[in-house]
Write the structure tokens for this entry.
Amino acid sequence: MPNLFEAIASDSDYNRIIAEIKIKSPRDGDLLGNRDPLCIAHNFETAGATALSFITGPVEYGGNTQLLREICNQTSIPVLRKDIISSRSDIKASVGFGAEAVLLIASLLERDLLRNLVSLAHDIGIDAVIEVHSDSDIEKAICTECQLIGINNRDISRFEMDSGTVGVTEELRSLIPSNLKVISMSGIETSLDLKRVLRVSDAALIGTALMKSSNPGAKLREFLEYSIRR
């Protein structure tokens, strides 16, 4: 299995979409309904997702690490663990659950701790995606050994309750060195949104728009039609 960086950086006729299995959100409430999240994960992989993302935070997002483990066990593509990762033990636990990558939120971590967590992740063989939402976050991120930066179009400090748009990716991308791979995350709801972010980034992470669909796999295939490299 390629790691997340390799999956995003590899040659393909398509730009990359990371599909997120999202149980619920503070903004939209229940997103799963009575559906099986493992079935959704399988459908995303079959439809052509580059990678999967799963939020393990139990309170606001309804996730758990056991389900993360089950998703990782059944898939052959990388899985990103999204949560508030803040310690070495969090990184090591993520490996034990089977995650190929972890999310590190720049605004929540001191500069030295962020640098150390990125180094640890690389040392034990997984990728670290640093989430940014401002120029100060980017300044902190590029002082690490990171290869992947995720621009969150919404504000995590408000539990993404703000009306963030893909314009955040368009605004911040020019501040990130060109040798780093950029993932645009959140707020991607339409094919036009996807086209806009893929003009300036290497991949898009889409969750809510897929989970709101009655057929998330088919919705992903629809988005993929707009991600062909011209």
User: Anything to note?
Assistant: The chain has a mean pLDDT of 93. The chain has one domain: 4-224. The two ends are 27 Å apart (CA to CA).
